[in-house]
UniProtKB/TrEMBL annotation:
Domain ABC transporter: start-end pairs: 9-235
Transmembrane segments: none
Protein name in UniProt: ABC transporter ATP-binding protein
Organism in which the protein naturally occurs: Streptomyces spiralis
Any GO BP: L-amino acid transport
Length: 262
């Protein structure tokens, strides 16, 4: 039997306190050395904070091992240089700059020749729109710029935070296709609420609840278990939020998890 490869990223007891408020109470997760690992959970469970904790964008304690090397005390800048590419939830494109300028800004000195061939093979549209101001792109096209930037520098890991959020069904499918191909080249940690996308892309999943790890395992097993999906994600077998899903008390929307569109 072939031994299972060691995880690329191992997070242990990740804790985040912001403004005196405990947001993460000890998250444990692994990102597999290949393919896509999905980070799931209801709204407000702590997914984005976990990603930001891994990247050092918020003060954190615990352990974050990248290929066995402890990174929890590194700055975000140092972590990026170690080969973590990040496509944030808000996409982070520079609206006034062109597509080509956005990509050029992402080039990292010392990371070797930027992989424009790969980027333009995956995103031919970005080549056609190289001179267009990024602020005038559609949401899906901006998302492609955000993902393309993570692929330029031969990164070892890509973290994509809700890349399909707010996109039209057809565009969700396009972004999912691109992520699928990207994950053939680089392991991906994918924060995602669209369960059809998770079903299509993710081999493994980690579910957070209230700032803690509530479940880890094969994504297909969780999605096949309607009771577990309902309990952990607040969705029924249709993938729609169930009557028992928690009512949001904060200004956030109700759990948006859906099975539609991929
Ligand atoms: N800077 C902050 N200051 C105070 N509270 C915060 C801050 N960032 C996050 N939180 C709180 O921490 C909790 C987790 O937020 P987080 O954005 O990590 O959740 P999430 O699982 O990504 O949610 P969603 O799916 O809705 O994006 C929420 O209750 C949120 O309001």
């Amino acid at each position: 039997m072939t031994p299972t490869p060691a995880p690329l990223l191992t997070v242990r007891d990740l804790r985040v306190v912001i403004g005196g408020r405990h947001i993460l109470h000890g998250v444990d997760l692994e990102v597999a050395a290949s393919g896509t690992t999905a980070l799931l959970g209801r709204n407000g469970a702590g997914k984005t904070t976990t990603v930001r904790g891994i990247l050092g964008l918020v003060p954190r304690t615990g352990s974050v091992l990248l290929a066995g090397e402890e990174t929890v005390r590194l700055t975000t800048y140092a972590l990026v240089r170690k080969g973590i590419g990040y496509a944030p939830e808000d996409r982070g494109v520079f609206a006034a700059l062109t597509v080509a300028e956005n990509l050029r800004l992402a080039e990292r000195p010392g990371a070797g020749e930027p992989a424009y061939d790969l980027v333009y093979e995956l995103f031919p549209e970005l080549k056609l729109r190289a001179r267009q101001a990024a602020g005038t792109l559609s949401g899906g096209q901006q998302q492609m710029v955000a993902i393309a930037r993570t692929l330029l520098n031969g990164n070892r890991l890509i973290i994509a935070d809700e890349p399909t959020k707010g996109l039209a069904p057809k565009v969700v499918t396009e972004v999912a296709q691109v992520l699928e191909r990207a994950a053939e080249a680089v392991p991906v940690l994918l924060v995602e609420q669209n369960l059809a996308v998770v079903r299509r892309l993710a081999r493994h999943c980690v579910v957070l609840a209230d700032g803690r790890t509530a479940h880890r395992g094969p994504a297909a097993d969780l999605l096949a278990d309607a009771e577990a999906a309902r309990r952990l994600l607040g969705v029924g077998s249709t993938g729609r939020p169930t009557a028992g899903a928690p009512v949001r008390t904060a200004a956030r929307p109700a759990a948006r998890t859906t099975e539609a569109d991929a």
